[in-house]
Each structure stands twice: as structure tokens, then as C-alpha cells.
Design goal:
The protein is α/β, with parallel strands linked by helices. Helices cover 34% and strands 20% of the residues. The strands form nine sheets. The chain has a nine-stranded mixed β-sheet with strand order 28-27-29-30-35-34-33-31-32, sandwiched between helices. A six-stranded mixed β-sheet has the order 1-2-4-3-5-10. β27, α19 and β28 (631-634) form a beta-alpha-beta unit. The chain binds zinc ion (ZN).
């Protein structure tokens, strides 16, 4: 009996010590060497799961979300067996260190997070992640085991599986066998839209803060559960560039701490050591700056990490390519470089684990007790539109920003976002308050501060993004600290008493959720009207754009009342009812100016010549935000498309050669017959100065000559441009993304639901005079300078008295010109409202 028990014990022990699954290298598991092929995403997931099965005592793989195309988003946690037993304690201790949980931390372990392949066609990254996890766990590598004793490594092997597979599938289909190193061969020229972006063609490395995409939403959640000390975002750049790693380039946002600057250099030097040993070329401190808060390096930086971008040269390189310098570059080279820097980063973090923890704690202590930024508190006034308040408070919550209400109302003074000046106002206990005395204090500053200090105007991205302007919110920034006294109390929706058969249902039209309601009603075939003017009903005032659903015209809808009420309930819309079409003041429901809204049939141009991002933004808007059908029409057979099947044609941003004279004439006829053409940014530029269209270029007149003369005088004064200054000099003509204040003609349907001003995010240098024949709904009047962000002096001059949004009536149809892209990156809430108006409200 005793012997039997012993054998049993031995067997059980055996099971623990020697797991069932024996660890295989990527080569053994996949059946080919890493770098010989582009691995499809599902095989990588299988490999990570295999590694976890083979290492149940120190590796975990977890799914944290799913892409639009239903691929799993996974991350894995790798550490020593001892740490692994304490994983939850380590995680919580880290949040305690940040002040996000109560209590004193007992553990002190470095947390390093490696993210791969945010851009799908920067395709070595996911391959490198497999080599990295293998070397972390294989018993053959004793160094990594040392590091894991005081380090938790988190690997997200592929942030963008849909884009990654789009690239891999393309390459696997079109690549020569054996691989062709000729840069002109098809395998080095990806077709539109390329694999860089996700399913909806969004750049996920611009979306960390805005979380417009499902991948970002899922990731931000787990990121904030861990709050790593070091975060690396692995990328690739054009294949002729050498490797780039930290330290980053200026500008650095001023909230970045000295330690964050220093340790980037420490890491960079450790990486350099390995690159020097092998003779690999690299550069640092150039091109990739730390300013825009929505990247995979800056978002972590503003959340207390050492956030970095690593860039291998490799986009378009396929399995092998000959570079400009005549050298071969293979996928194996590329993944070896990423792998080397991944391990180097873990090594140097492990060597500095205690210091990383102490400095991380210090970063947050400063946030929580003594934040340096000038503006300490932000106030969102309670009288703002409740949908917008809900959306922005939800957003604050996902980033773990604490907000609430002040203890008592009082007179206050602060920067007023609606006037860009210091103003007095009354702070009430209903207003929403958040201050920067909290863990996410620095992140708050980067998103909401009235003006960001730019240490160098040469930046990689837009220079302004303030969400108060995006939402058009009445808001204030204060230099004083207002503490949070009460938890946020959302205003409850007043229940409406609905008579059994009202004459009409009436809904406000002030937010994107109201647009969703309109779209939902139309999808059910319900006929809807919108009032063009203000009216009063039952003593209540309704603004232009108010949606009216009359019983008349909808007799054919089965169960009409229930359908309307259910849609309103699902979207939490307040239902107003009327027993009569006779209003107290304004136009009765039967008036000709209470417009019947035709149900739009929408076509969206896509494909070669259109901007993939611009196309994706509109596609995402319809499908994911207002849930309304849209047909994507590719450019390559656009000429053969029967446009009479659609009432709306949207031409997104792009670089068009497709609109020749016969095409323009055909489109003009379609518009005159009742179509509505919506042109965005360079989509509008393609129609400027074209026969039959109202958008004109500035004439080559005196004004231009005067500007040239001034320019010449200025040049003479300054002397010749130095070779080294040329790039900076160019900037006076550029806008890399800045916010301007636009005057709106609120009486036009394109401006329904908006206030007197609209803040536009200008991301191009296009400028056109007001329409002579048409409605100038949004304009830049008089002298121009951005309310926030950087724009060159010359371009500001060119923008004086120019068109932003205009509508040309043509026959029975309209052309809507949108010089700025209102759907840019899908985070400009008020812009989406204007875009929705172009689709649903204009031209009725
Ligand atoms: Zn990239």
C-alpha cells in the first residue's frame, strides 16, 4: 500500500514537473523557419497557446477582444514561476503604486509590455513576437530566466490581426517562388488599400486615446488594468531606412518627466550595444516625436510608462528585397533586429527593476499631489447636450479618469473654450468637474489644456485635438484646484406619458444619437419630416432640424406606434407627442417648410485614388456609428456604375485622376436630376474650377501678386535660406493639423443641431473663396489663426475669408463641398453631425 501511494505521488509530481506538452520552437511548431514565410494570424495564436500549454507554471495567454473580422485579440504574460503565483498581487501592487488602488505595495517587479504589428503591413513584427516568447521560456536561454525573476513581460503579438492577414494573404498570393528581390516586382507593391490599417481602414496607431475602433477599446481596458513601466510599439518604416529606436525626437510634450527622457536614452544605449556588435545601422532622436497623445508610444508615456516606438526598415520588402544601397534585406534580418531589441529592452528593464518602480511611483505621486501643469481643473457645464455629456463621461471612464461634482456652487473664473478668453462664470453642483490631481493627470493635460506648448514645430502628426472643441462643449479650464466632492450623477431621462394614438411624434435633433434615431426610423421605411425653422409646441421650443413623425404618410407601417416608440426607447430618446399639427408658434406640421426627408441611398467611392483612411472613416461612420447601409463603389469600375440607383454619392479625400470631362458631365447630370454629391477635402479639390461646378480657385489676381511681393520682400530681408533650415522654412506654408473657429449659417440645414460656431480640425492647406453661386454655410471670416495648434504664417493668410462648408443647388440636386474632413479619425463629434446633415437634411 505504501509503495503504491509513493508511485502515485511520483506520477503526480511527474505531471507537475514535466508538463504534458513539450515546448516546441517556432520552427518545430510551424514546420518552417521564421522568416521563410509570412505566418497567418491564426497560426501565431496557436503557437502562443502552445507555449502557454507547455509552460503552465509561468505563461498565460488570454483573449482580450475580437476584431471586426472576428479574429481573436490575445496577450500573453510571461514571468518566473514565483512571480506567476503572485501575478494578481503584482498587478494590484502596481496600481497601488500609481494611486489607482488603495494600499501599500509589497512586491517590486518591472512590467514590460511589448506590442507588435499595429500596422498590418509592417509585417515582421508578429514573426518577431514568436521568437521573443520562445527565447523567454526555452530552458536553453538562461539569461532570460534571470530577467524574468524580477520582470513580468506582457506580449501583444498582433494589435491589428485583420490588417496583418490582409498583408500576409496578399503576399502569399502574389509573391514569386523563390521570393523576388526586384523592388519593382508585384510582391513589393501592395494594392489598395494595403495592410497597414484595420478592417475599417483606420490607423490604429492614431487611435489609442480616441478608441474609435474595437481593437483600441479592448486594448485600453487591459492596458489600464496593468499600467506597465515600459511599453514598446514595434513598427516598420520604408525598407531603405536603417533601424530607429529611442530616444525619440523633439518635440516632447512638457508633461514628460526627466526620468522618462533619461531612461529612454538608457534603453537606447543598451539596444545600440547589440546593434554595434553586429554592425547594424540605426538612428535615434530623429523623426519620431512624443506629442500627439493617441500613439502607442505617447499614450503609455502620459500614463507613466517609458513609451517607445521601434522602427525596422521593411515596409514593402516582402521576404527579400534589394535596397537602394544595393544590399539584400530579408524578413529574417528584420525579425532578428526586432527580436534583439525586444530582449535588450527586457534586459535593461530587469537590471533597473527597482528604479523603474520607484520612478513610476514618483511620477504618480507628483500627479496625485503636486501636478505641474498650469490648468488644474476642467469643468464641463451641465447645460451641454446630455448625449454629448454621456459620450464624453463614458470616454473619461474608459481611461480611468475620475470625475464628479463640486461640493458647492460658486462664482469662478477660467479659460472659456467658447471664447478663448478668461471669463467669469457660475460653477454649479450639476457641472462635471475633473482635476489633474489624479493618476491620469498628465494625460488629461495633453488632451484638454487650452494651448499645448510645442518645443519644435516639426512634428509627425496633427498639433491639436482638444475634445472640448471636437464636441463643441461649453467648458472651462481653471488654474485653481476644485476637489471632487460627489460622484457623478447623470441626469435621468424624464419618462414620457404617451397617448395611444398621437397625431405626431416629435424628437430633438442635436446629437449623433438623434441621427441614429433618424437612421433607424428610415431603415424601417418610416416617413419622417424635419422642421426647417424653430417652432413652439405645448409651450416648448423646438430648434430647426427637429424630427417629426406624423401618423399620416405612415399608415402602411404595421404596428406604427410600437415601432416608433421601441426605436426611441432603445436609443433612450425623449419622446414628445402632439395631438395636433397646429403649433403654438412657427410652421404647422403640414407646412411646405416642414420638409419631408427622402430616404437616402448612399454610394461611397473607394479604391485606388481614394484615401484608404478617408474611405474607411465614412464607411465606419455609416456601419458602426449610425448603422445605416452604404454601398462602396470602387474607382476602377466607377465609370460603368448606374448612379441613378443612388441618391447620395460621397467622394472622400483622395488624389483623383478619374474625373475627366465625360465623367464630370455625367455626374453633373446626375446631380441636376436630383442626386446629392458630397465632396470631402481633396475630393472637393478634384471638382474645383471644373465646368458645371461652383467651387472656384482663387483667381490669379492682385491679391496673389501682393502676397508674392510681400513674400519676396520678406526673403530679401532674411537673406537666402540656409540648406539646413530648408525643412523648417517650408513649415510657414503648412498645417499639420490645427483647430480653427468657423462661422456657421445656422439657418441652413447643413448646420442643424450645431451652435453659432463650429471648431474645425484643419488637416490640409486647401483654400477656396466663398461660393458665388451657393450657400456658404461654414466660413473662415477675416484674419485667421488657429485657436489651438500650429499653422504656418503664410497659410494663415491664405485662409482669410475662405470656404469650409458650402452647398451648391443644381437643378433638383445639390453639391456639398467639405473642404475640411469632418469625419477625420472619427473623433470629431460635431464634424460627424455636419456630415450627417449633408446626408439626411440638406436639399429637401
Ligand atoms: Zn508603423
Amino acid at each position: 500500500m505504501k509503495k503504491l501511494t509513493f508511485t502515485f505521488l511520483l506520477l503526480t509530481l511527474n505531471h507537475f514537473i514535466f508538463p504534458q506538452t513539450k515546448l516546441q520552437s517556432p520552427t518545430e511548431f510551424l514546420g518552417y523557419e521564421l522568416g521563410d514565410r509570412f505566418t497567418r494570424h491564426y497560426r501565431m495564436v496557436e503557437y502562443f497557446n502552445h507555449v502557454a500549454e507547455a509552460n503552465p507554471g509561468n505563461v498565460r495567454v488570454q483573449q482580450y477582444g475580437e476584431t471586426y473580422e472576428h479574429r481573436p485579440l490575445i496577450y500573453s504574460i510571461i514571468t518566473s514561476a514565483d512571480n506567476f503565483k503572485n501575478l494578481e498581487q503584482i498587478r494590484q501592487d502596481n496600481l497601488r503604486r500609481a494611486g489607482m488602488l488603495e494600499g501599500t505595495p509589497a512586491t517590486k517587479v518591472a512590467i514590460v509590455w511589448l506590442s507588435y504589428n499595429v500596422h498590418g503591413n509592417e509585417a515582421n513584427s508578429m514573426e518577431a513576437s514568436m521568437k521573443t516568447i520562445y527565447e523567454l521560456v526555452t530552458p536553453g536561454n538562461t539569461k532570460t530566466k534571470e530577467w524574468l525573476k524580477n520582470t513580468v513581460v506582457i506580449i501583444d503579438p498582433c494589435i491589428n490581426p485583420d490588417g496583418r492577414d490582409r498583408y500576409a494573404n496578399y503576399y502569399n498570393q502574389y509573391g514569386n517562388i523563390p521570393a523576388n528581390n526586384d523592388p519593382q516586382a508585384r510582391e513589393h507593391r501592395e494594392p489598395w488599400p494595403g495592410g497597414r490599417a484595420n478592417h475599417y481602414l483606420f490607423d490604429l496607431n492614431r487611435d489609442w486615446a480616441w478608441e474609435s475602433q474595437t481593437e483600441s477599446k479592448s486594448r485600453i481596458k487591459i492596458y489600464n488594468q496593468w499600467m506597465p513601466h515600459v511599453h514598446v510599439d514595434f513598427h516598420e518604416q520604408g525598407y531603405n531606412s536603417p533601424y530607429y529606436f529611442a530616444p525619440a525626437a523633439e518635440p516632447f510634450h512638457e508633461v514628460i518627466s526627466n526620468w522618462q527622457r533619461e531612461f529612454q536614452t538608457t534603453i537606447g544605449k543598451n539596444n545600440a550595444k547589440y546593434f554595434d556588435e553586429q554592425g547594424w545601422l540605426y538612428f535615434t532622436k530623429e523623426r519620431f516625436d512624443l506629442f500627439y497623445p493617441s500613439y502607442g508610444d505617447t499614450y503609455p508615456v502620459y500614463s507613466g510608462a517609458i513609451g517607445m516606438t521601434y522602427e525596422q526598415g521593411g515596409i514593402g520588402a516582402g521576404l527579400t528585397v534589394t535596397t537602394n544601397e544595393g544590399d539584400p534585406l530579408t524578413l529574417k534580418d528584420r525579425l532578428t533586429h526586432h527580436f534583439t531589441n525586444g530582449l535588450s529592452t527586457i534586459e535593461i528593464s530587469s537590471l533597473n527593476a527597482a528604479k523603474l518602480n520607484d520612478e513610476f511611483e514618483r511620477f504618480f505621486k507628483e500627479n496625485n499631489t503636486n501636478p505641474l501643469a498650469a490648468y488644474k481643473t476642467y469643468i464641463i457645464k451641465a447645460e451641454n447636450n446630455p448625449d454629448k455629456i454621456k459620450k464624453i463621461t463614458d470616454w473619461l471612464g474608459t481611461h480611468r479618469i475620475q470625475f464628479g461634482h463640486a461640493a458647492a456652487g460658486k462664482p469662478a473664473r477660467g479659460f472659456d473654450y467658447s471664447t478663448q478668453a478668461q471669463n467669469n462664470f457660475n460653477l454649479t453642483t450639476d457641472d462635471i468637474v475633473f482635476n489633474i490631481y489624479q493618476p491620469k493627470g498628465r494625460f488629461i493635460t495633453t488632451v484638454f489644456e487650452p494651448q499645448s506648448k510645442l518645443t519644435d514645430s516639426l512634428t509627425y502628426d496633427i498639433t491639436a485635438w482638444n475634445l472640448f472643441y471636437s464636441y463643441g462643449l461649453k467648458a472651462f479650464a481653471l488654474n485653481e484646484k476644485i476637489p471632487l466632492a460627489k460622484n457623478y450623477q447623470p441626469v435621468p431621462l424624464a419618462a414620457s406619458a404617451i397617448p395611444s394614438k398621437p397625431y405626431a411624434y416629435v424628437f430633438n435633433y442635436q446629437s449623433l444619437t438623434d441621427v441614429e434615431l433618424l437612421a433607424a426610423l428610415m431603415k424601417k421605411g418610416i416617413k419622417v419630416r424635419a422642421s426647417e425653422k424653430t417652432f413652439t409646441l405645448n409651450g416648448q421650443r423646438f430648434d430647426p432640424g427637429t424630427i417629426i413623425v406624423t401618423r399620416r404618410n405612415n399608415e402602411g407601417i404595421a404596428d406604427f406606434d410600437n415601432v416608433v416608440q421601441l426605436i426611441a426607447k432603445e436609443l433612450s430618446r425623449k419622446i414628445h407627442v402632439s395631438a395636433t399639427g397646429f403649433v403654438d408658434k412657427g410652421l404647422d406640421f403640414g407646412s411646405g417648410d416642414v420638409n419631408y426627408l427622402k430616404i437616402p441611398k448612399v454610394a461611397l467611392l473607394g479604391g485606388d485614388q481614394t484615401s484608404a483612411l478617408g474611405h474607411g472613416e465614412v464607411w465606419h461612420f455609416f456601419e458602426q456609428q449610425i448603422h445605416y447601409p452604404v454601398s462602396a463603389i470602387p474607382t476602377d469600375y466607377f465609370k460603368t456604375v448606374d448612379l441613378t440607383k443612388y441618391t447620395i454619392l460621397i467622394v472622400p479625400d483622395g488624389n483623383y485622376r478619374l474625373f475627366d470631362e465625360p465623367q464630370l458631365a455625367a455626374i453633373e447630370k446626375w446631380v441636376s436630376d436630383g442626386g446629392r454629391l458630397i465632396l470631402i477635402a481633396n475630393g472637393a479639390a478634384a471638382f474645383a474650377d471644373k465646368k458645371g461646378f461652383a467651387l472656384k480657385e482663387f483667381a490669379d489676381d492682385d491679391a496673389k501678386k501682393k502676397a508674392e511681393k510681400e513674400d519676396k520682400e520678406q526673403k530679401e530681408k532674411e537673406g537666402p535660406v540656409k540648406y539646413a533650415d530648408a525643412e523648417r522654412k517650408e513649415l510657414s506654408n503648412n498645417i499639420s493639423g490645427a483647430i480653427y473657429k468657423v462661422s456657421l449659417d445656422k439657418t441652413h440645414p447643413l448646420a442643424f443641431g450645431l451652435d453659432d460656431f463650429y471648431y474645425t480640425l484643419r488637416t490640409n492647406e486647401l483654400h477656396y473663396p466663398y461660393l458665388e453661386h451657393g450657400w456658404n454655410v461654414g466660413t473662415l471670416k477675416g484674419k485667421q489663426k488657429p485657436v489651438i495648434g500650429f499653422a504656418g504664417s503664410k497659410i494663415n493668410k491664405k485662409l482669410e475669408n475662405t470656404l469650409v462648408f458650402g452647398v451648391e443647388d443644381k437643378g433638383r440636386g445639390q453639391v456639398v463641398y467639405m473642404i475640411d474632413n469632418p469625419t477625420f479619425r472619427c473623433f470629431w463629434e460635431n464634424g460627424k453631425m455636419i456630415f450627417a446633415n449633408a446626408v439626411f437634411m440638406v436639399g429637401q
